[in-house]
């Protein structure tokens, strides 16, 4: 089986490529640095030609109102190239609850990406993951100053990127789901509490202030970013921190 990984040099893509290579598959990573551009379409036909499976792990460079256009253009170009190349399975990585937070541009954009894939003629799989543990530093930085970090108490279920990559690789090597598989970490935290745990581990003395209006996740209502019925990974947050 030949598998083309578009966005194959990023946080998830590089790990997916390594996992699939170790399992004996013929895996070819592609990215802008290798001459493949999902927006212009440059190099896409060549990248997917002869591939049995295409894994698309490219991501919008912004989380704002420009992100829907990125996903529409990139998916249109990728699916056109995949049809031309006779690809039999297209896999994307999305977010648990992405269709439940229309207030966020980026989540609406990911829902659009899912819909474009599902509406196409190629068998497909969507892997939805909860928030990556690796993103906590960025989340903390959004609403931080010298003394405090403001975070809402939004429930999240963090997952390690290595576990996300393993799940994506498993789906890519299997039969198309023609649907969605949710994956999540083994624990649910309030985001403000997770911030306190993270800062304490780092020896960072800033205070986390619970603020229901702070940051991107303030727009999230309820527990839509968690899923107790998802396939749970093994890595706990404390173990990942250590």
Structural class: alpha/beta
Give a short account of the largest sheet: 7 strands, parallel
| Strand order across the largest sheet | 2-1-3-4-5-8-11
Number of helices: 8
Strand count: 11
Can you tag this structure with a few keywords?
two-stranded parallel ribbon, 19% strand, seven-stranded parallel β-sheet, 8 helices, alpha/beta, 242 residues, single chain
Describe the fold and architecture.
It is a single chain. The chain is of the alpha/beta class. The chain is 36% helix and 19% strand. It contains eight helices and eleven strands. The strands form three sheets. The protein has a seven-stranded parallel beta sheet, with helices on both faces. Helix 1 crosses helix 6 and helix 3 packs parallel to helix 4. The longest helix has 19 residues. It starts with a strand and ends with a helix. The mean pLDDT is 96.
Topology:
Elements (H helix, E strand, L loop, with lengths): L1 E5 L4 H12 L3 E5 L13 H5 L4 E4 L10 H19 L3 E7 L9 H15 L4 E6 L6 H7 L5 E4 L3 E2 L4 H13 L6 E5 L4 E2 H12 L4 E4 L20 E2 L4 H5 L1
Helix pairs in contact: 1-6, 3-4
């Amino acid at each position: 089986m030949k598998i083309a990984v578009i966005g194959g040099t990023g946080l998830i893509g590089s790990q997916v490529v390594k996992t699939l290579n170790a399992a004996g598959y013929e895996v070819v990573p592609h990215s802008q640095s290798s001459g493949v551009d999902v927006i212009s379409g440059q190099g896409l036909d060549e990248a997917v030609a002869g591939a049995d499976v295409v894994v698309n792990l490219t991501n919008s460079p912004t989380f704002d109102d420009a992100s829907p256009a990125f996903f529409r253009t990139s998916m249109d170009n990728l699916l056109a190239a995949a049809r031309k190349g006779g690809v039999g399975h297209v896999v994307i990585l999305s977010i648990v609850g992405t269709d439940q937070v229309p207030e966020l541009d980026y989540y609406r954009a990911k829902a659009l990406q899912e819909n474009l894939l599902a509406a196409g003629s190629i068998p497909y799989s969507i892997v939805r993951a909860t928030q990556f543990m690796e993103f906590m530093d960025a989340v903390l930085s959004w609403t931080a100053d010298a003394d405090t970090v403001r975070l809402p108490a939004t429930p999240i279920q963090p997952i390690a990127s290595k576990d996300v990559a393993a799940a994506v690789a498993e789906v890519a090597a299997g039969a198309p789901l023609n649907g969605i598989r949710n994956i999540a970490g083994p624990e649910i935290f309030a985001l403000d509490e997770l911030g306190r745990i993270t800062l304490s581990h780092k020896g960072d003395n800033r205070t986390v202030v619970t603020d229901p209006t702070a940051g991107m996740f303030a727009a999230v209502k309820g527990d839509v970013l968690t899923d107790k019925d998802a396939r749970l990974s093994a890595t706990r947050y404390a173990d990942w921190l250590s």
